[in-house]
Amino acid sequence: MITLPQQESKFSAALSKRFENEAVYSFLENFEAVAQKHERRRQKIKKNEDIQNEKLPTEYTNIFTVKPQKISPKEYELLYIETLYTIKHKIGSTTSKYIQGENDLYAYAQEAFELSNEDHHRLFDKANEEKPPILILNVEIIEAKDLEAKDANGFSDPYCMLGIVPEIRHSIILQQPNSGGVSSDEEGANANSVHDNKLGFMKRLKSFRKSTTRRSQGREKTNSTISSSSQSSASLKDKLPAKYIQATDVKTATLNPIWMEKFRFRIESEKTETFHLDIWDHDDEFSVFEAATKLNQVQGFKGLNRYFKQIAQSARTNYLTEGSHVDDFLGSVNLKISEIPSTGIDKWFSLEGRNESSKVRGQIHIRANLTTREDRGISEEDNWTDIKEHVELLEIFIDHELKLFKGETTQWAGELSRGAETILHQHAIQGGITDIQHSMCRWIAYSQKYSEHILTYKLLLSITEQLEQTWKSKSLSRDESDMLREAFTVFINDCFKQLSRIRDLFPAVNKTSMERLEQLLTILAKLHGMEVFRYCCPFQNSLQYELTSMIKTSTIEWFDRVATQITKPRLRSDEDTLRNAIELVYLMVGDAHSSIKYYNPIFESTVKMSFYNITFKKIDEKLMDIVIKALEEELGDQIHQCPSKFLEVKEPDSVDVLAFASGAEQISLCLFELYLSLHELSKYKIYVNETDRANLKISQYHGYFGAAVKKWLSVARNKILHRIERSVENDKYETVLTATSNVKFTASSLDVSNCFSQIAQFWRRLAWPDMISSITYLIKITEDMANAARLYATLVEAKLNTRKICEANDVACFTQEVSLAVNDIERIRESFKTLPIELSYDKLLVAAEKFHPIAVVGEYRKKIETTVACCSQDIIERIYQILSKLVTMMEVELKQYTFHITEAPELVSLQDTIHPLITFIDVRILSSKDFLIRQNFTRLLELVWAIVMDQLISEIEQTLKPRTNSSYARLMKALDSLVDYFHADEQNLAKEVLKTEKYKLLRKLIKYYSMDTYSLIKLYYQEKLQEQERSSIINQSSTSSDLGKLYGRAYYHLKEETLYIEIISCKNLKPCDSNGLSDPYVEIQLCPKFLYPHIEKRQTSIVKKSLNPSFNEKFEFRLTEKECTVSGGFIHLIVMDHDLMWSNDFEGEAFLEISKLPGIPNDSINDSRLLDELKKFELTLTHPKAIRSRIVDILEARASDRAAMEFVRQRREAESQ
């Protein structure tokens, strides 16, 4: 077992060796170096946006290495055949957006499918073997407006008759007969050629018309005609489909009807057939419904012409019978099938009349488009195969366009060439693909390409918006919804896969990556907010829920990965473990900064969620587990103890330094760097939700460093103490004194001042977050540095005391050495005095008052300020003590010259009396000004001034022969001249500094000695009154005083020339008897006696055994107005304890100035007031010997003055009691 002396010896040896072989002064500097390193890393993290990169990271391109599964070769050929088939059977007129030439389309398709000429011709022959498709015209009658009013009510009851005018295969001409102008193919023809027959037919066919007469005769005629037509048509072989003519509903009483009805017509010949539409005003309930029924009985062209004949005959009924009613013609529209563009028609058509003279008006809104239907024996509505083919075709064309694109794929806007657009357009209209189906196909195809190529998400966002715009509720079949749901799922999973590697694929310092991340989240938010998405994916969780789960999982995986990389297996020491933890924390600081500055704003603006809040909570838990484990390996279970507990355990100073002397300093620096990194990371917790913030482990990071901080502060203290010892020891006064320049400090003061600055800097770097324990640490630092400052002053003085003065030269050198010593000490005092300010103690205490009791914080403040004040005062006293060595060397001369001032004959001028003293000070004292700093030079002058004051007081008090009043006046002028000299520019002592207590006493003594006896006695009572008032102020906060209090009233009645005094009571008197009580009474007398010689002393009755007696006795004194107003008159109240056996005991005394009593002339109180109405006075009792009176001493020296002797006798008797 090592004994304490052995331990100290071992400590000293280890410490000395360390100081000799290593940089002993580097301890605090090393901590500052660690702090600066931390600051550089912190600034680097915050300035990383300066190294932005416009290109996507390499990691991003690696995720597209896996290609999706393609269709089989057979399916590929079938798709190409379908493409050729689509091109071969193009429908509709071609607009400028598309390519008209089939050869160009064949060439593009072959290039896109990457087929050889041989394969192309082979598959082209197969496409030619396919049956041609059936051409279909889809028509939607939307509405009409501004129609002509035919009914008496100012409206019409419009309906539409629409159909396809077929190709004229035989020479059929409708002529106008002579009787009524009815045209019929049975009544003859008048044409020269087939071409003329066609033109004539188109020219005359301005309307479909049905007879709607209400007359029974008309109905019977019509029925007969239709029956005859039906019988004659039975012999025809060719049947005309009923679809050639169809009708809308009747819209009653309107000129702006809305139908919104759809019709389909089969087109036999796109080039020759015409779409025709009539609008009629319905006037018979039979016309629309029966006419439509009769259309089913019409067969063949001859039957159709016969039906048109009946329609024409009905036109003549308007003038056959006045009461007849028929449908009125409102207008017609003709549209050639060959003129309908492939994109369809959606426009308003102006209505035409039956002939040029017909007056019709209004417009009708028609929507029409062409499509095909292949004769496969399936429903016309079933285009599932076409939809799948369309998606596959889109994907092939997208791949082809990307190969042709010259720039980066991220710059591709998604535009396809005209050839691709033409083929896709024809495939869509031939397959009957609706707008929503087309939008769906585009979204599926393009979204699939995002897993194969790096494309801008702006492209898919626009396609998504198109899908949203075309979507209508339940507009997709179940198969289509499943197909779209699968595409949604694949795309979202791919997005989530990228987001799970957000830090790798979307680095925060990459501007392009941040833009891409924002686009990705935007489209995810867009998808989850769309009705079509919710329809297809009804059971999909919310985007916020899915993202939260993904971010949590991916954050943990990322953290585990980087933690494993940093702490990968190798030869590890305690230092390695701490450094790994440090690197990991700094990495998390960088991640937190990136999350706050880059990731979080994007997530909040796009998906309305906090990315940082999720990630930081997960990182906090994982990271702190690693940090705690690393700290446990180094510090053990101490990290789980309260930091304030460590300050309660005091270890020998040698233990701390010895531990560091044996090689633990590097570990301490690692701990400090780890603390700084955790402190930096903890700053980011303010961005976490307030509800989650309190549960973060990082909030209590400082609690694990209590033992480390205790060690740091202890070692820093001991290092500084030893540094002070070595610095003072190494100070070479000889070197400084021989310097050419005027040096006022040695190196040690600069070194120790730097220590204080470094400890303050260390504390600021530490930024301990817990207020109470932080105050405790601050108090410890202040106390340690106070001891260090005292040690420095002690060592400097001790070194100075070893100097011996032998010769005059030694005196000059000693003066300079003293100057250097006190300057160094003052510098250390100033450095220490500002230390709490540098430690920001006031700011810390003000902040603590918000969370802790003010009384507790006040005690801390008092302790810190008291420590600073006491240390500063101790050092100042030591400086005065050292400076007094210089003053002592000249004290004899100072006293001699001061004596000359007091004893010089009156014939000698005032200037001549003080000149020797001033000359001596100029020679001996002012020469030190070059070596002393201002504060110490002032202190030196203060010491000289004090010696001068002491000597003057001594000379005045010890004089044996009386002085004249003129000598005292001369002495007062000399004192004023000395004040002016010491206050002059060279000395520049403030007059407040010069007017010390000794100076005031000197002036008072000069004044007293120059006064007569009666004036001194008056002044004595005036001073006693002032002493009483001061005692009253001191005891104002207490109900009791040392000697008690006296209560009463006093009043002067001017007319009666009577002074009334009432003694009411006393409180808290001092017990004078053995029973712990007193027998008090009060004596009243007017003083001084020479002013009131005719007034006898009066007294109250005695109150037995009481310390709070009540007297309530009144006394009257006959005084003239002049006697009351004279200056210096007092009422002297003496409280005595009555004693039968011995002399009475003195309890205390009090004074009242008569000239200031109520009732004295010029007083504001009315003369008529009674004594009982006056406010009672409260006087604090005093004792004559409480404060020495110089007046009594002066009067005592006047032995020949009987008045002085009598007064002194009375006062000495009172003082002795």
From TrEMBL:
<feature type="domain" description="C2">
    <location>
        <begin position="118"/>
        <end position="319"/>
    </location>
</feature>
<dbReference type="GO" id="GO:0006887">
    <property type="term" value="P:exocytosis"/>
</dbReference>
<keyword id="KW-0268">Exocytosis</keyword>
<dbReference type="InterPro" id="IPR052095">
    <property type="entry name" value="UNC-13_domain"/>
</dbReference>
<feature type="region of interest" description="Disordered">
    <location>
        <begin position="209"/>
        <end position="234"/>
    </location>
</feature>
<keyword id="KW-0967">Endosome</keyword>
<dbReference type="InterPro" id="IPR000008">
    <property type="entry name" value="C2_dom"/>
</dbReference>
<keyword id="KW-0963">Cytoplasm</keyword>
<keyword id="KW-0175">Coiled coil</keyword>
<dbReference type="GO" id="GO:0099503">
    <property type="term" value="C:secretory vesicle"/>
</dbReference>
<feature type="domain" description="MHD1">
    <location>
        <begin position="672"/>
        <end position="796"/>
    </location>
</feature>
<feature type="domain" description="C2">
    <location>
        <begin position="1037"/>
        <end position="1167"/>
    </location>
</feature>
<protein>
    <recommendedName>
        <fullName>BAI1-associated protein 3</fullName>
    </recommendedName>
</protein>
<dbReference type="InterPro" id="IPR014770">
    <property type="entry name" value="Munc13_1"/>
</dbReference>
<comment type="similarity">
    <text>Belongs to the unc-13 family.</text>
</comment>
<dbReference type="InterPro" id="IPR035892">
    <property type="entry name" value="C2_domain_sf"/>
</dbReference>
<feature type="compositionally biased region" description="Low complexity">
    <location>
        <begin position="224"/>
        <end position="234"/>
    </location>
</feature>
<feature type="coiled-coil region">
    <location>
        <begin position="28"/>
        <end position="55"/>
    </location>
</feature>
<dbReference type="Pfam" id="PF00168">
    <property type="entry name" value="C2"/>
</dbReference>
<feature type="domain" description="MHD2">
    <location>
        <begin position="911"/>
        <end position="1020"/>
    </location>
</feature>
<dbReference type="InterPro" id="IPR014772">
    <property type="entry name" value="Munc13_dom-2"/>
</dbReference>
<dbReference type="GO" id="GO:0005770">
    <property type="term" value="C:late endosome"/>
</dbReference>
